[in-house]
Amino acid sequence: MGSSGLGQSCKGLKKCAVLYDGISLDAIRYLMLLNIVAIVVGFALLVWGAERFVLGAAAIARNLGLSPMLIGLTIVGLGTSAPEILVSVMASFQGNPGLAIGNALGSNIANIGLILGVTALIVPLTVCSNALRREYPILLAICLLVLVLMLDGELGRLDGVILVASLVLVIIGLARIALRSRTEKDTDPMASEYEAEIPEALSTKRAILWFLIGLALLLFSSRLLVWGAVNIAVSFGVSDLVIGLTIVALGTSLPELAASITSALKGEHDIALGNVIGSNIYNLLAVLAMPGLIVPGLFAPEVLSRDLPVMIGLTLAIFITGYGFRGSGRINRFEGLLLVLCFVAYQAFLFIEEREPADSGQTAIVQMLDEMKA
User: Fold this and answer.
1) Pairing mode, if any, of strands 125-127 and 154-155?
2) Domain boundaries, the chain
3) What is the sign, positive or negative, of the torsion defined by CA atoms of 91, 245, 133, 120?
4) pLDDT by residue (tens digit) across 124-165?
């Protein structure tokens, strides 16, 4: 909504305050501020909780004797998608499957366009890992599977079951890749990079404590975030799908942004890219499965005509540049800039497409007041 439209809506709010004598204009402003605070606090707790959750889970696995490569490809990869998974579950249980679907696809788009793009702008990424090159085709195959399942315009329980079954197969496949990499330790730099990153000095009791604290924070913060995001969407007449594709997707991708930039600055390029590829795999299989299993039904046609093509196109882009058909793959600064520009253009298109007439904000808030008074 443009500033002029917002101003007209705010003028209209004075009429709302007259019509609803029990709720003043100040109360409406307070509710909006409360929603914004809920989103900001939810994001902050979600990011910190995910970090503690991954730290605890990785330390427990390492203390049990699992290899760093196996922990990195499975536990850490799934753990970095924990925010998206929990947000998707909460949104689905609250009857907002559009937000859950938007979160899954939007996070993948943000992971590639924003996170990989910004990381490559800071430090051009060179990919040498054989294990990582095996993950590229897996991600592409999963993108095609999702496209086939969603072509009928519906995400049903059978689709959710297929995605979860595929998740189990992928975890088994990644575990085999990790076990095979033990014999390739001298040639696969990703194994030594994970070995340096997985914590060793954390006791099992402390690791379990951090794991439980992280899980509790993820549960609380995801619910808080969804509550604030849905209220904002209703207030401004924006679909929950677009809220999921923009605000929620960007917020739940913050752990990957921090992890990828930190890894790239340390020279751990394979982990920087691996974090994104692994997260995208788990987003499509675990996150997208939740609305299908919990609240199956039709979804907005824009998912097929707009969002899925963008996600698949960006996935193909990093496959072409990063796979390295004749040697090491590389994503340079120019390619990183192109990825960022694609992400910005996509977000701008969503904003323009979702702009409502000037009175839509007033109408949506009137509807919200109706629900509150009821």
Assistant:
1) unpaired
2) 3-373
3) negative
4) 888 776 767 778 889 999 999 999 999 999 999 999 999 999
Higher pLDDT, 8 or 260: 260
The model's pLDDT over 338-359, given as tens digits with 9 standing for 90+, comes to 999 999 999 999 988 876 543 4
The per-residue pLDDT for 337 is: 94
Q: How many residues does the chain have?
A: 374
* Cα–Cα nearest to 361, from 229, 226, 234: 234
- Write down the H helix ranges in the chain: 3-19, 25-63, 68-70, 77-80, 82-93, 97-110, 117-122, 130-150, 157-181, 189-197, 204-236, 240-243, 249-252, 254-265, 269-282, 289-294, 302, 308-322, 333-354, 360-373
**Rg (the chain; Cα; Å):** 22
pLDDT category of residue 108 using cuts at 50, 70 and 90: very high
Q: How far apart are CA 235 and CA 229, in angstroms?
A: 10
Rounded Cα distance between 201 and 203, Å, is: 6
How open is the CA angle 74-106-76, to the nearest 5 degrees? 15
By the 10 Å C-beta count (0-12 exposed, 13-18 middle, 19+ buried), 332 is classed as: middle
pLDDT in tens, 211-221: 889 888 888 88
Q: Are 8 and 365 in contact (CB under 8 A)?
A: no
Beta bridge partners of 127: 329
The model carries a pTM of 0.80
CATH topology assigned to domain 3-373: A middle domain of Talin 1 (1.20.1420)
